[in-house]
Amino acid sequence: MSIRRAQDERIEGTPDGLNAITEISDVPDAPSVSAVNAPSGRAYNNGSATVTVTAAATGGTPTSYAVTSSPGSYTATSSSPVTVTGLQSQTAYTFTAQGINTTGTGSASSASGSITASTIPQAPTIGTPTVTNTTTVSVPFTAGATGGSAITSYTTTSSPSIALTTTGTSTPLTVTGTFASDTSYTFTITATNANGTSSASSASSSVNPNPFTSDYESIATVTLATSSSTVTFSSIPSTYKYLQVRWIARGTFGEASVGQKANFNSDASSIYTTKLIRGDGSTFYVDEASAGTAMANIGRASASTATSGMFAGFIMDISDYANTTKYKVARCYGGSDRNGSGEIRINSSMWMSTAAISSITFAPTDGGSYEQYTRFALYGMKG
Amino acid sequence: MATATYVPISSTSIGSAAASITLSSIPSTYTDLVLISNVGLSINNNSLYLQFNGDTSSLYSITSFEAYNSSYDSYRLSTQTKMAVGGVNIGFSTGANQFGMTTSNIFDYANTSVFKTVIGRWNSLNDAGSKETGALTGIWRSTAAITSISLFSQSGNLSANSDIALYGIKAE
Q1: A310 touches chain B (CB under 8 A)
Q2: Distance (Å, whole) CA A278 – CA A280
Q3: How many Cβ pairs closer than 8 A exist between chain A and B?
Q4: A313, B32 in Cβ contact below 8 A?
Q5: Residue A22 has what pLDDT?
Q6: Is residue B6 part of a domain?
Q7: A59 in the Ramachandran plot: left (φ > 0), alpha (ψ -120 to 50) or beta?
């Protein structure tokens, strides 16, 4: 506490009217700002300044200082040095300080010298990546603000995470790595300057740099949401060597199973020939049919009296289906389990036509329809 | 647009005899599974079995036909605790270099609206006098999605160098 002669004047209410000397508290006089510096490594738009404040020789003794920035009026109060945070990156600031004690806050100092807040960079904005090849992805981006220090590098991170090499400091970045087969990746980018590394960009859309390749391709699938009397694949491309149909089936019929047939190109003329072997769990059978109007007896699907959920499974292979110099040969293999019985069957059929197969129609043979969840899938195999 | 599929999911080869091989954490992203095994059994006259999701309840049935040496027949096994996929009355041999082969197609394995249907083929030839080939259809009366498959012998072990491979086929 300082003491000074307050006023050389009469103090009202004193008994003798004599002048009085009174001890009173005083606020600090304006301090001086002796040094300012800006630490590095701060987050973008959260820069800081460290302000060293020296008390004035006169006035009350400060116990702390209130420091205010210009622009922005960011403030902080503490003993010296005072750290002011929240400064916008790459912005010039000056500071004033006021001493504080129990009496109050003193007047402000003159402004400090100017400093520019230098931080880590702003996060980049990522674009849509494109696949260059199975090990390389091109990742475009829009650079964010530097934070007051030049960006020295960009780093790319993938999800799922693998080791990546990022090349380039301008858009697009070239990202290389050993991408897993048939796996989709998203990417994020960070920028680095002398102060540190930015937060990550948002994740990119996904790409599959190393897609699975196969000579076996899914062409079309029919999954029944409601019953249907037939299932047809039409406009079958002629670009494969072989076709395969895989299906599970259940039909409406008053027994535990229902027969099925197939017709090619909707042809119901009597040019189908079939040979088959089958077992029903107790007997091994050999059957055949000639001059049929369909590829018949291809297998019995589960049907109405079989427990709900039971479906038969089949695979049909058709060789050289687009060759117009040959009759068409197909083999069907599969069967069903029923309530207390079952059947496994291999059917070999010939459609005595040289026409390329462009459609296949499947149907239950005993009337009725295929039930919900029956699913036929057509695949092509390249030659 | 046609989509490439028939994707290898996993394969396992055992370096020494083991009671079973299990493929677990099977992704649900495919429509059908194809399980191919090349397996030897330590005890002759055994069969190769599988179980789904470790389920040992009596929900498995198969119907098969087969040619065994000079005879042929058809068999059925109902309400089993496991599914025979490599022969019903005869298994693979004990010879160090002799392995049987099975192919099991498992339909709609992740569809929780249907029981799981399997159609399979196998062949087994050995120098102990047995020659067998056959085909089967099987069912696991469960609507649970299949997430693991275990292969094991009726008794004894799977021989060293037994191998299984699992593929996934998408229907798109």
Answers
A1: yes
A2: 7
A3: 147
A4: no
A5: 59
A6: no
A7: left
Do the chains contact at A212 and B4, CB–CB below 8 Å? Answer: yes
**Model confidence at A10: pLDDT above 50:** no
CB B85 within 8 A of CB B102: yes
- Domain boundaries, given as residue ranges, for chain A: 32-116, 125-197, 216-381
Residue B71: closest C-alpha in chain A: A284
Pairwise CA distance, residues A200 & A187, whole Å: 10
Distance between CA atoms of residues A345 and B135, nearest Å: 8
Question: Residue A218, Cβ neighbours under 10 Å: how many?
Answer: 22
SS3 content of chain A, % helix, strand, coil (to 5): 0, 50, 50
Q: ipTM value of the model?
A: 0.94
DSSP state of A164: E
Measured between beta carbons, the chain B residues lying within 8 angstroms of A280 are 63, 74, 76
Q: Which residues contact A255 (CB under 8 A, 6 or more apart)?
A: A303, A304, A305
Residues of A in contact with B136 (CB under 8 A): 335, 344
Phi and psi torsions of A68, nearest 5°: -130, 135
What is the distance in angstroms between the CA of the first residue and the CA of the last residue of chain A?
100
Q: Which domain holds residue B165?
A: 18-169
Q: Are the beta carbons of A280 and B63 separated by less than 8 Å?
A: yes
* Contact residues on chain B for A373, CB-CB shorter than 8 A: 108, 111, 113-114
Q: Which residue of A has its CA nearest to B5?
A: A217
pLDDT band (50, 70, 90) for residue A198: very high
The residue type found at A225 is A
Q: Give the whole-angstrom CA distance, residue A120 versus residue A339.
A: 71
Side chain identity, residue B19? A
Helical (H) or strand (E) element with A351: strand A342-351
Q: How many CB atoms lie within 10 A of CB B18?
A: 17
Structure tokens at A146: 């530097």
Domain A125-197 in the same topology as domain A32-116:
yes
Q: Which helix (H) or strand (E) holds A306?
A: none
Q: Give the CATH architecture of domain A125-197.
A: Sandwich (2.60)
pLDDT 10s digits, A234-259: 999 999 999 999 999 999 888 889 99
Distance CA A105, CA A96 (A): 13
For residue B24, give both structure tokens: 């677990």
- What superfamily in CATH does domain A32-116 come from? Immunoglobulins (2.60.40.10)
